[in-house]
Design goal:
mainly beta, Immunoglobulin-like, five-stranded mixed β-sheet, four-stranded antiparallel β-sheet, 1 helix, 23 strands
């Protein structure tokens, strides 16, 4: 009998212990679920930095057709236009602007030419949209326009190939940056010519341009290990119809085509002279 009572006592104790452990586990599960729910409810906030503004604060001699360009640390969305977050003002009057986003840049283009010798202010407010906080704002940027008519010839500020004129990839785009907005009608294949220095053949280009930037894309890959000349005609003009001083840029190609950061080489048949890539575009390895 004693052994039976002792056995029943052990079973009861085991059942009680099991019940307690189950309760603890259930409570732990509830607490964990509560914690997870709390974690899910927490919103992640990213901060966008305003890296630069053109024109710069207190600058003078700004052209009357100049755009205001705000450069942010990451790509932005059109919703930041809302609530007059960016306003161009002259004598307390709001100047109407067209707003455009290009990647991480916001471009404000006045709908009419600005007045000469006048003070303008860009008012910038802090913004919060979709958990993105745009910092470094709440400030005003002021500038003064040119005193008279623009009579200054546009100049070429930079080219994307300037650092590798002896080693240009066959598929490289050429990006030209001018000192001011260029006349749309003057940006054409008659005024921008790419010539093979050996054969004098003109290489066909696609031209895209916006504001001060012109992008030249070869319709077909350039010849490998070949000298080229890019001729910019004096018929190129800025928006005030001031002529560009003719300029020629010489460069030499290598034998590489780049696509998605992979390098492709041109192989030429010694028998028939035909050229191939060393593999199909998109392939990562040579067969």
């Amino acid at each position: 009998m004693n052994n039976l009572i002792k056995g029943l006592s052990i079973v009861c104790a085991s059942l009680i212990l099991s019940a307690c452990q189950g309760s603890d586990q259930k409570q732990s599960t509830i607490e964990n679920n509560s914690t997870n729910k709390s974690t899910v409810d927490v919103k992640t906030t990213k901060t966008i930095k305003l890296r630069s503004i053109t024109p710069t604060n207190n600058s003078a001699g700004i052209l009357t057709n100049e755009d205001i360009i705000l450069d942010f640390s990451i790509n932005i969305t059109p919703s930041i236009f809302e609530n007059n977050s960016f306003v161009l003002i002259q004598d307390e009057n709001i100047i109407q602007t067209d707003k455009k986003i290009v990647g991480n840049k916001l471009i404000l283009s006045p709908k009419v030419a600005l007045k000469t010798n006048s003070q303008y202010t860009v008012k910038i407010k802090s913004i919060e949209e979709n958990n993105l906080t745009i910092s470094d704002l709440n400030r005003h940027i002021s500038f003064r326009t040119i005193e008279g008519k623009d009579i200054t010839s546009p100049t070429l500020i930079s080219t994307s190939i300037s650092s590798k004129l002896d080693n240009v990839d066959l598929s490289d785009k050429i990006i030209l940056t001018f000192s001011e907005k260029m006349n749309d009608n003057s940006i054409n294949l008659n005024n921008i010519i790419l010539r093979n220095d050996i054969t004098s053949d003109i290489h066909e280009l696609r031209i895209n341009h916006s504001n001060k930037e012109v992008i030249l894309s070869p319709k077909l890959p350039l010849e490998s290990n070949t000298n080229y000349s890019l001729v910019l005609s004096s018929k190129l003009k800025d928006q005030s119809n001031n002529s560009f001083d003719e300029k020629s840029i010489s460069f030499k190609t290598n034998n590489k085509i780049m696509f998605n950061n992979y390098e492709y080489k041109i192989i030429k048949s010694k028998i028939i002279g035909k050229k191939w890539l060393d593999r199909n575009i998109g392939a990562q390895k040579v067969c």
